[in-house]
Amino acid sequence: MIKKKVTCFLPCRAGSQRVVRKNIKPFAGYDHGLIKVKLRQLLAAERIDEVVLSTNDADILAYAETLEVPHLRLHRRVEELSSSATSTDQLITHALELIPEGHILWTHVTSPFITAQRYDEVIQTYFQQLKNGYDSLMTTTAIHGFLWQDEHPINYDRTIEKWPRTQTLKPVHEVNSGAFMAPASLYREMDDRIGRHPYLYVMDKLTGFDIDWPEDFVMAECLVEKGLVGV
Predict the structure, then answer these.
(1) Angle at 216 between CA 213 and CA 217, to 5 degrees
(2) Of 35, 54, 216, 219, which residue is the least packed, with the fewest Cβ within 10 Å?
(3) Which three-class secondary structure state does DSSP give residue 178?
């Protein structure tokens, strides 16, 4: 029988280099910005049993403490794990130390358009796909376009057709970092947040939008203000 407890790991460090104070500066009318948006979504998701916020940002911790939610666990992350040089591999070990049992949902505040309902859907799909032979899940955005690498196309054959219709191209999946799901036991076994056979959960471009650069922050605010997405 599969143990169903789902714990969310939400890493959120201070000192963003590309967008200063990206995680907590005002965003689309939210005074505490992306961290407020994301915690509201995660804490409202019915299938998430606990949210573990790991951060070295004193302002984020101070805000999160005001929420007084029993299934929100706050962890003050050590500075050695909070620099721009900290690798994802190091955070994988960190996540397992905080969540040694059950199933881990790894997400980021920089995916503001993944709602509580969508997280519930991701989790439901994950458990369904475990029964189908998959060992983990990650969200992706399908790219239907002419993709080249090293001066050659990678998703079509020009000897067959030089310019095929884009709708007939085999999509390439971009990992959008919206969500990763795997059992804690897989983290322990493979030192990774996905396994050998992850299920690719495809999101549309707006839902899977990731804020990484200053222009992304501006575009995300515009999407909310225009009513094209909800948070």
Answers:
(1) 95
(2) 219
(3) strand
CA atoms of 215 and 143, how far apart (whole Å)? 20
The model's pTM is: 0.92
Give me the residue label for tokens 């196309």. 153
What length does the chain have?
A: 231
d(CA 162, CA 217): 37
pLDDT in tens, 65-115: 999 899 999 999 887 766 677 788 999 999 999 999 999 999 999 999 999
Q: Residue 153 half-sphere exposure, CB side, CA atoms within 13 Å?
A: 16
Q: What is the DSSP letter of 34?
A: H
Contact 112, 220 (CB under 8 A): yes
DSSP annotation string for 145-156: S--EETTEESSS
Q: How far apart (Å, rounded) are the C-alpha atoms in residues 73 and 197?
A: 30
